[in-house]
Design goal:
Number of strands: 4
Shape: globular
Number of helices: 9
Distance between the termini: 87 Å
CATH architecture: Orthogonal Bundle
Organism: Strigamia maritima (European centipede)
Protein name: Integrase zinc-binding domain-containing protein
Number of domains: 1
Order of helices and strands: HHHHEEHEHHEHH
Strand content: under 5%
Length: 238
């Protein structure tokens, strides 16, 4: 995926600046050894460079820190590229207004393509007042590297909670087949190979709450001698 993004960005730079040659280096496994936040910011800076390099934008160049809209555009770019790699034929059929063929794995899903070219799923919450991402979640390929990055990012957002909290946070914006299975595989190896080793990962059912308690059930708040002294003290004071 990193190579595809680099080639498309190079084509845009060639169109704007018209250089003789473009030399660039890329790692085809960029999504496996990076983080979702890191690659999102890298693509955002590339988009800003391309915008500022256009001669028509010489008077209104963008400066300063990255904005939320720029970061959202970078996420959209990554999602569209990931979907085109795995669901290229399905995306073309939906854009042409044709139904998905019966041999596709998405045939049983009610998929649509929005105005940004992102494939979404129509759920039963069509008349809900929730956000668009909750009513029509973004479809992600189950075994794609970007999906694993977003799953790991959702795990970090819930502060290393278990599978249930991570999956609930992920499904607020996205949906992917076999998401629970993918998370179990990631938790089994501690998210190693995605963005470092997460030593805080655990299953919800494996938390030993009794070991977290400082007081045991069979202990008394005061020993027998102290309670006897407290009971006799008012008699001696008289």
């Amino acid at each position: 995926m990193g190579a595809v993004i680099a080639v498309r960005l190079a084509d845009q730079i060639r169109e704007v600046m018209q250089p003789g040659e473009i030399h660039f280096w890329t790692d085809s496994q960029i999504c496996l050894y990076s983080s979702f936040r890191h690659i999102k910011r890298v693509i955002t800076w590339c988009h800003r460079f391309i915008f500022n390099a256009r001669p028509s934008n010489a008077t209104n160049r963008i400066n300063g820190p990255l904005t939320a809209s720029e970061l959202d555009r970078a996420v959209t770019t990554m999602i569209v590229l990931a979907q085109s790699e795995v669901y290229g034929s399905e995306t073309s059929q939906l854009r042409a207004g044709k139904p998905i063929q019966s041999g596709s794995s998405l045939h049983s899903l009610n998929a649509i393509v929005d105005q940004d070219g992102v494939m979404r799923l129509q759920t039963r919450l069509t008349h809900s007042h929730d956000s668009c991402t909750a009513v029509q979640p973004i479809l992600l390929p189950p075994k794609h590297a970007l999906t694993k990055l977003i799953l790991h990012f959702s795990h970090l957002q819930v502060l290393h909670c278990g599978l249930t909290a991570t999956l609930a946070n992920f499904r607020e914006n996205y949906w992917t087949p076999s998401a629970r299975r993918t998370l179990r595989e990631r938790e089994r190896i501690g998210f190693t190979g995605v963005s470092g080793n997460c030593g805080h990962t655990h299953q919800d059912s494996e938390v030993d709450f009794e070991s977290l308690c400082r007081l045991q059930a069979h202990t008394r708040p005061f020993d027998e001698r102290e309670s006897r002294t407290t009971a006799v003290r008012p008699h001696n004071a008289m």
